[in-house]
From TrEMBL, chains A, B:
Its EC number is 2.7.1.140, 2.7.1.151. Transmembrane segments: none annotated. The keyword ATP-binding applies. Belongs to the inositol phosphokinase (IPK) family. It comes from the Eukaryota. This is Inositol polyphosphate multikinase. One of its GO terms (molecular function) is ATP binding. The keyword Repeat does not apply. The lineage of its organism: Eukaryota, Viridiplantae, Streptophyta, Embryophyta, Tracheophyta. Keywords: ATP-binding, Kinase, Nucleotide-binding, Transferase. It holds the Pfam family IPK. It catalyses: 1D-myo-inositol 1,3,4,6-tetrakisphosphate + ATP = 1D-myo-inositol 1,3,4,5,6-pentakisphosphate + ADP + H(+); 1D-myo-inositol 1,4,5-trisphosphate + 2 ATP = 1D-myo-inositol 1,3,4,5,6-pentakisphosphate + 2 ADP + 2 H(+). Inositol phosphate kinase with a broad substrate specificity. It is an enzyme of class 2 (transferase).
Length: 297, 297
């Protein structure tokens, strides 16, 4: 009954014989233990987090719900393997656009091997991590003109520069063709704005990161997604936009210090989202002025 | 009429024939141009900043006022040299305690030479920069028990670990001897707290850094200081605590991106100050309970 997830946008995907996660189509997501102890690390984090009474309830909703582990036949048929069982966060969405953004200017952390340190540092410098404090890890966007999904994978987004990163965020909330170099950001207000939008959720997370010293979320991603079907239907007024933190193979104890690396990157990411949301307001404002007195524009 | 500054706590000091800044004793501070173009860079920043209409007035007060440049005989007698002329921010303080904290987990930045990158990265990893998002650069604290100043210079604070960094911040606001390993934080509420205290000022700076994309303040320091004389005098109720940003030899244009490196480090520094301020509240609370009902403590 298990199958490859339809809406995964980044990370280790089950393809060409590679190991990847599975879903049961009924709301559960099975993530195979990653190699070199990373699976055990991630499971340890989920166990700690799900039982940690110091995590406020309003913050828990930004993490996939954990249901323990289960030994399953691996997606690539390589044998039995332990899997972390989580809520499949997009299972109730019919045509979700999703975007995975790795937060933090630095993916290495004190105590790692010199080899891992060098590899992370190289990736951080080659991508936008150092300059922006975040980097795209992959996305899947519904193209309303062509009625199909565009999938952009890691090997492409890895080469993104600052302008590409900004453009991708604009395309994520646009209704014109993704081939168009001028995304119209038609859904920016519905997806990013409002009391239930992405921006409000990111700001709630930010407030927690300003004081939480429980965990350091090295190499974690923000996964944000919304439902296109409601946008497509006239009268549909809830994009069901959501933010989830994902990928916890490198989480460490905070030891009384805030995760300034994640927080700084998150603030930069928020500013990018705010800029898109506010430029929309400006476009509207200019349009409004045009109606009243075209000569002053 | 020019002399060595009495209350400098970090940076290039005029000592043993080394070049350092000068003061005129009447409110002006003369900083000699640093080598390798750093002096020109810093002067360029001050020129840009002082004429930049996008910098809000309430933020300007966190920067030393700039009065142009002046060619002067160098402090070490090595000849004439251009100096940046600034307000001497501690000139009206008789016994100031001061602390210089370099903000940011990363002191290098995209575009620097490989040699500079490696040197900065080494320093960032050896000090608390990577782990805390800031590192001590030096401080001068008035010891109320011994009625003299303690000066701790860069070569000492460079070796600080997390606990040393926290302890130094506690000693900065304590009235017991600095040789004591349990600082009493007697002045924490007066120096850190209140509407005019260090914490309120840092939070105002933080709010600006969340949106400002004008400059990236690589390798900059927060210099915080207060007047001990008012604390010593009974009835003196204003520590005149102040925060200034200093050292702008590596400032770059923000190019539409916030300074997430500075912001993350600043938030971590703020959390350290808050922890000291709040632990004081707890001590007071326990003390209060003791008076009312000793048995429950």
């Amino acid at each position: 009954m298990l199958k490859d997830p339809e809406h995964q946008v980044a990370g280790h995907m089950a393809k060409d014989g590679r190991l990847g996660p599975l879903v049961d189509g009924e709301g559960q997501f099975f993530k195979p233990f990653q190699s070199n102890g990373r699976g055990e690390s991630e499971d340890k984090f989920y166990k700690s987090f799900s039982s940690n009474k110091n995590v406020p309830d309003h913050i828990r909703r930004y993490f996939p719900v954990y249901h323990g582990t289960q030994v399953l036949e691996a997606s690539n048929g390589s044998g039995k393997l332990p899997h972390i069982v989580l809520d499949d966060v997009v299972s109730s969405y019919s045509t979700p656009s999703g975007m995975d953004v790795k937060i933090g200017a630095r993916t290495w952390y004190p105590g790692v091997s010199e080899q891992y340190f060098k590899q992370c540092l190289k990736n951080d410098r080659e991508t936008t991590s150092v300059s922006l404090g975040f980097r795209h890890a992959g996305f899947k966007i519904f193209d309303h003109q062509e009625s199909r999904f565009w999938i952009v994978e890691y090997k492409v987004v890895h080469r993104y520069k600052v302008d590409d990163a900004r453009l991708a965020l604009r395309k994520f909330v646009s209704s014109n063709s993704l081939a168009d170099s001028l995304p119209n950001c038609a859904f920016a207000s519905e997806v990013f704005g409002g009391s239930k939008g992405i921006l409000a959720q990111l700001l709630e997370l930010k407030a927690w990161f300003e004081t939480q010293t429980l965990y350091h979320f090295n190499s974690c991603s923000v996964f944000m997604f919304y439902e296109n079907e409601t946008v497509l239907m006239k009268g549909g007024d809830d994009a069901r936009a959501q933010v989830k933190l994902v990928d916890f193979t490198h989480v460490l104890d905070g030891n009384g210090v805030i995760d300034h690396n994640f927080l700084g990157g998150l603030c930069s990411f928020i500013k990018f989202i705010q800029d898109i949301h506010e430029s929309l307001d400006k476009l509207y404002f200019v349009g409004h002025l045009t109606c009243v007195s075209p000569s002053i524009v």
